[in-house]
Design a protein that fits this description.
The protein is an alpha+beta fold. Helix content is 17%, strand content 35%. It has twelve helices and 41 strands. The strands form ten sheets. Strands 34-35-37-36-38-39-40-41 form an eight-stranded mixed beta sheet, sandwiched between helices. Strands 24, 25, 26, 27 and 28 form a five-stranded antiparallel beta sheet that branches. β10 and β11 form a beta hairpin. The longest helix has 18 residues, at 649-666. The mean pLDDT is 95. Keywords: Hydrolase, Protease, Serine protease. This is Peptidase YuxL. It comes from Oceanobacillus kimchii. InterPro entries: 6-blade_b-propeller_TolB-like, AB_hydrolase_fold, Peptidase_S9_cat, WD40. Pfam families: PD40, Peptidase_S9.
C-alpha cells in the first residue's frame, strides 16, 4: 500500500472538531450550529456559529473556554437565546443579532437550560431544577466560593437515601430538586413557574397559537418505581392541565401541528421492554385518540448509532412538513441512519440515505429544504444542504486540515448468515500500511447496549487500532438495532447464547475469507454490554490471546442492586429480578466462569461509573488475581460510564493508550 499520510494516533482525538445541533434561523438561507473542540487545557469548548448559505459566510457567535449550546433566534430574527456555562453554571443568555454583548437572563442556583421561544417572541420557556420550596423570583446563582463550600459541606454529611431512583450515571447522587418548566416574559422581565409537582417535567413544544404547552412527566404516586412518561397539555390561559395518555408508555419529542389541533410524538408501550422499537404516534387533541403511524414498519426511529465521535446537542425528533401532511424524522436501519418522510397513514419514504450517519437535521418549510449533519466512516461529520430537488451540497469542511494529514481507513462491509439463519452485518478495517501476503493480528470489537448499532459512522478508536497494525472487525449481533423488532429482541433472556454464537461465527467467517488474518493472534474488546460479552467470551473459549474489558458487567446478582438501572434492567433483559431466581442470574454471570479464563485480560473501569459500577470490574479482577490469572486492573478517577465518548479528553487518551499497550504486548 502506497501511503502518503501518517497513521492516526491517540492525541488526534484532541484535534477533532465535532459539529452538532443544526437549526435554521428565521432569516432565509441561514442556519446555526455548535462546534465542540478540545482546548489547550484539555477541556471541551462548545461554540455557536451561523452560516449564510447564499454567501458561504460563517460567523462565530460565542467565545471563551465555555460550553455554549441551544442557540435559538426569535421569530422576527432580532434576538437569540442560548445556554452557556460562562458564569460557572449553565444559564440562559440573550444576545441582539445586530451586535452587542450577551446578557445573562437567568441566575438559578442549579442552572437553566433548553430554551424555546413563544411564537410571538415575547417569552422564553425553559427548564430548571428547583426544590419544592424554591422561589423563582429570588433565585441567586452560587459564587465559586459558595459552590466549594457546598461541596465541602456535602463531604462532611451523611447522605440520606429514601427513594429508589437516588442516583444516575449522568448526575451522580440526586438531590431534592426536580426539573420544572419556567417562562421568562421579556417585556416585564418576570418569571412564571408553570409546573410545581415533585417530579421531573420535560418541555416538548409550544403550540403555534401560543396557547398550549406539551410536556412529559409522571404524576403517579408510584413514579419512583416506574419508567413511564405521560404526555400532558397545559393551557397557558386557563392554567388547566390535561393528561393525554394512559400511564403505560414512554413519550418524548412531541410536536404540535401548525393548527395546534394535533400532536406527533415518539414513544412506545414497552411491548419488548427495553428492546421495543420506537414508534411514531399521532394524537388528536380534541378526542385524545392515539393513532400509531408506524404499525407497518420494522425500523428503529431515531439515531441508534454507536460512535465515540459525537458530542453536543442530539437529534431534534420528528418535524411536521409545511402543509401538515407529512412528518420528517431520522431512522436507523442496516448500519446507517437516514432521513425519512411519512404521511399520516404511514406511507414511508427514505428521502436521504446512503452508507453514512445522519446525526441531525433541520427543516426549512418555505424552501422545502434541509440541513443534514452527516458523518461517514472516513469523515467525523459536516453539514450539507438537501434542497427541494433532493440534491446534496457540502456546507462545511471542519476537519479538512486533519484529514489531509492522517490516513483514515475505509471499512469493507461483511455479511454472513448465522448457523440458525440470521443475516449478520459487520465491517472490517485493514491495518495501516497493509501488504498482500503478510499476516496481521485481529481485534473483534463488541458494542454496548446491547440495543444499539455499529455502522457507517466515524469511530476514532476503531481507526486507531487499524492504524496500529490490527485487522479490526465490528459487527451487529442479535440484540442490535437496525434489523427489525425480532432481531433486536433476540438477545433478551438469551445473553451469552445466540449473541455469543453470532460473534464467534463472525470471527470464523473472517478467518475463512481473509487469508491475511493470523488465527493465532486474536484479540477482543468491548464496553458495557460489550464488556459483559468480552468477559463471557474469555470464560467460554480460549481462542483469543488478549482481551480488554471496559466498564463491564461480571456479576448480575450484584448489578441488580448497585447499578442506577439494575432494578429494572435485570428484569427487562433477563426476565427476572434478583430474588426471583438468583441461581439463573449466577449462571449468566461471567464471574462464575472465571476459573476457565486463560486469556490475558485488561480491565478498564471508571471510578464514578454508576451504570456498570466499578465493583463489577473489581470483583472480576480480585477473583482472577486470586486464581493467579494474567490480569490487570486500571481505574480511571472521576470517570463515569461515558469515559470513552464524552469523558475527560486526557483520560480518554490514556484509556486508548492502555488498550493499545495491552494488545501490543500480547498480540
Amino acid at each position: 500500500m502506497n501511503l502518503t499520510k501518517r497513521a492516526i494516533n491517540e492525541t488526534d482525538l484532541k484535534r477533532l472538531e465535532i459539529v452538532s445541533g443544526p437549526t435554521y434561523t428565521a432569516s432565509n438561507n441561514r442556519f446555526t450550529y455548535v462546534s465542540t473542540k478540545v482546548n489547550e487545557d484539555s477541556e471541551y469548548e462548545a461554540h455557536v456559529y451561523s452560516k449564510d448559505i447564499s454567501t458561504n459566510q460563517t460567523k462565530q457567535w460565542t467565545y471563551g473556554k465555555h460550553s455554549n449550546t441551544n442557540f435559538r433566534s426569535n421569530p422576527n430574527n432580532t434576538q437569540a437565546v442560548f445556554q452557556s456555562t460562562r458564569s460557572g453554571t449553565t444559564q440562559l443568555w440573550l444576545v441582539d443579532l445586530d451586535g452587542g454583548e450577551p446578557k445573562q437572563i437567568t441566575f438559578f442556583q442549579k442552572g437553566a437550560f433548553s430554551p424555546k421561544w413563544s411564537p410571538d417572541g415575547t417569552s422564553i420557556f425553559f427548564s430548571a431544577p428547583l426544590n419544592i420550596d424554591d422561589d423563582i423570583h429570588t433565585q441567586k446563582e452560587h459564587t465559586c466560593e459558595e459552590k466549594q463550600q457546598i461541596k465541602k459541606d456535602k463531604q462532611n454529611k451523611p447522605l440520606v437515601v429514601n427513594r429508589l431512583k437516588y442516583k444516575s450515571d449522568a448526575k451522580g447522587f440526586h438531590d431534592d430538586s426536580n426539573i420544572q418548566i419556567i417562562e421568562y416574559h421579556l417585556p416585564t422581565k418576570k418569571f412564571i413557574q408553570w409546573t410545581t409537582k415533585p417530579t421531573d417535567h420535560s418541555l416538548h413544544d409550544i403550540s403555534a397559537d401560543g396557547k398550549k404547552l406539551v410536556f412529559s412527566s409522571n404524576w403517579n404516586e408510584e413514579a419512583d418505581s416506574e419508567l413511564i412518561s405521560d404526555l400532558f397539555l397545559l393551557n397557558l390561559h386557563t392554567h388547566e392541565f390535561t393528561l393525554l395518555t394512559d400511564g403505560n408508555s414512554n413519550y418524548y419529542n412531541s410536536r404540535f401541528s401548525s393548527d395546534s389541533s394535533q400532536i406527533i410524538t415518539l414513544g412506545h408501550d414497552f411491548d419488548y421492554a427495553g428492546a421495543t422499537l420506537t414508534k411514531l404516534y399521532l394524537f388528536e387533541l380534541s378526542s385524545k385518540k392515539r393513532k400509531e403511524i408506524t404499525n407497518q414498519w420494522d425500523i428503529q426511529l431515531g439515531d441508534a448509532m454507536v460512535t465515540d465521535s459525537r458530542l453536543g446537542e442530539s437529534e431534534n425528533g420528528p418535524i411536521w412538513s409545511k402543509d401538515g401532511k407529512s412528518i420528517y424524522f431520522l431512522g436507523s436501519d442496516q448500519g446507517s441512519t437516514s432521513l425519512y418522510q411519512t404521511d399520516l397513514d404511514g406511507n414511508l419514504e427514505k428521502i436521504y440515505g446512503e452508507d453514512n450517519h445522519v446525526f441531525g437535521f433541520t427543516y426549512h418549510p418555505d424552501e422545502e429544504s434541509f440541513i443534514l449533519g452527516i458523518s461517514s466512516p472516513i469523515d467525523p461529520g459536516n453539514f450539507y444542504e438537501l434542497n427541494s430537488n433532493r440534491e446534496l451540497s457540502l456546507l462545511t469542511n471542519v476537519n479538512k486540515s486533519l484529514l489531509e494529514e492522517i490516513h483514515v481507513e475505509k471499512p469493507e462491509e461483511i455479511s454472513f448468515t448465522s448457523s440458525d439463519g440470521l443475516a449478520i452485518q459487520g465491517w472490517l478495517l485493514r491495518p495501516y500500511s497493509f501488504e498482500d501476503g503478510k499476516k496481521y493480528p485481529f481485534i473483534l470489537e463488541v458494542h454496548g447496549g446491547p440495543h444499539a448499532m455499529y455502522g457507517n459512522s466515524f469511530f476514532h478508536e476503531l481507526q486507531l487500532l487499524a492504524a496500529k497494525g490490527y485487522v479490526v472487525v465490528y459487527t451487529n449481533p442479535r440484540g442490535s438495532h437496525g434489523y427489525g423488532q425480532q432481531f433486536v429482541n433476540g438477545v433478551r433472556e438469551n445473553y451469552g447464547q445466540g449473541d455469543f454464537q453470532d460473534l464467534m461465527e463472525a470471527v470464523d467467517y473472517c478467518l475463512d475469507k481473509y487469508s491475511f488474518i493470523d488465527k493465532d493472534r486474536l484479540g477482543v474488546t468491548g464496553g458495557s454490554y460489550g464488556g459483559f460479552m468480552t468477559n463471557w467470551i474469555v470464560g467460554h473459549t480460549n481462542r483469543f490471546k488478549a482481551a480488554v474489558t471496559q466498564r463491564s458487567i461480571s456479576n448480575w446478582l450484584s448489578f441488580y442492586g448497585v447499578s442506577d438501572i439494575g432494578y429494572f434492567f435485570t428484569k427487562w433483559e433477563h426476565g427476572l429480578n434478583l430474588l426471583d431466581d438468583p441461581e439463573k442470574l449466577w449462571d449468566i454471570s461471567p464471574l462464575k466462569y472465571a476459573a476457565n479464563v486463560k486469556t490475558p485480560l485488561l480491565i478498564l473501569h471508571g471510578e464514578l461509573d454508576f451504570r456498570c459500577p466499578i465493583e463489577q470490574g473489581e470483583q472480576l479482577y480480585i477473583t482472577l488475581k486470586h486464581l493467579k490469572k494474567e490480569v490487570e486492573f486500571i481505574r480511571f478517577p472521576g470517570a463515569n460510564h461515558e469515559l470513552s465518548r464524552s469523558g475527560d479528553p486526557s483520560m480518554r487518551i490514556k484509556r486508548l493508550e492502555q488498550i493499545g499497550r495491552w494488545f501490543d504486548q500480547y498480540l
